[in-house]
Amino acid sequence: DFHCSPRQSMTNSSNNNKTSVPPPPPPSPSSNTSSSSSSSSSMLLRMATFGVAGLAFLGVSNYLSDPSWRYEIGNDGGDESNPKKDEPAPPQSQVTSQAYMDITIDGQPAGRIVLGLHGNVCPKTVQNFETLCRGDTSYNGIALGYRNAPFHRIIPGFMIQGGDFTKFNGRGGRSMWGKPFADENFQLSHTGPGILAMANAGPNTNSSQFYITTKRTSHLDGRHVVFGVVQEGWDLVKRIEQDCGTRSGKPLCQVMIAQAGILATQAGGANDTEAASK
Q1: Better-predicted residue by pLDDT, 23 or 230
Q2: pLDDT in tens, 168-202
Q3: Cα(first)–Cα(last) distance of the chain, in Å?
Q4: ∠ CA(149), CA(155), CA(159), 5° rounding?
Q5: Residue 197: closest CA among 172, 171, 223
Q6: How far apart are CA 100 and CA 257, in angstroms?
Q7: Neighbours of 125 (CB within 10 A)
Q8: For 231-278, what is each residue's pLDDT tens digit?
């Protein structure tokens, strides 16, 4: 709700009361010089005020044009000296399973992203993610799973975010248990691009939303649970970031998870068998 400013209130009150104010007497000739000097001083003061206001406006504009103030895009200088800064970071722990997501862009098949999961470090978080990838469970009669969920927030130089399969806009999502769950631990870090972590709305509010970083984001360490890394399909992640992302985060393309599942593993390696809800 907007309210009248004090100035507006005073103006409205004076108009309603229509109080008569006698005009001032005409100035005497001797006052012309002082009046002219006063006018010059007033003009200089106004020019100085406009100048300061202009500089302040320019500073605020430059500040707001930097997306980091809103989207927590950190300035991790370590990336700049890394010749492989645009490649996904290596796994920080044993990859205990692999999840896949088949992606469409504007309705057209675009390829597959394979994610290595660290179930030995974050077993509960990985269990939740695997279950939602398979899509074989429900809560109160509502199917839970990533199939047909969008990547609703894509910011170049930061990350791609998805996993909201209830409201499809970043305001929804649900864990396999039907309610948010606590941050499991922060043992793993945002060491570079390609890190898979849980998105949240504050401490201990994990559900189904996740993100994949496209640069090093160490400023998010200790705030979001890292539980995996991109192992295949990095070119597709970069395509989504570059072709579909905006500074506001609103995608230019409809990027959807057409299918998701878990790759069966044998002796620590992935084979061609897939476990998914078709």
Answers
A1: 230
A2: 999 999 999 999 999 999 999 999 999 999 999 99
A3: 49
A4: 70
A5: 223
A6: 10
A7: 27
A8: 999 999 999 999 999 999 999 999 999 999 999 864 444 444 455 544
SS (H, E, C) the chain: CCCCCHHHHHHHHHHHHCCCCCCCCCCCCCHHHHHHHHHHHHHHHHHHHHHHHHHHHHHHHHHHHCCHHHHCCCCCHHHCCCCCCCCCCCCCCCCCEEEEEEEEECCEEEEEEEEEECCCCCHHHHHHHHHHHHCCEEECCEEECCCCEEEEEEECCCEEEECCCCCCCCCCCCCCCCCCECCCCCCCCCCCCCEEEECCCCCCCECCCEEEECCCCHHHCCCCCEEEEEEECHHHHHHHHHHHCCCCCCCCCCEEEEEEEEEEEECCEEEEEEECCC
Residues in the chain: 278
CB 206 within 8 A of CB 125: yes
d(CA 78, CA 179): 37
Q: How far apart are CA 275 and CA 197, in angstroms?
A: 22
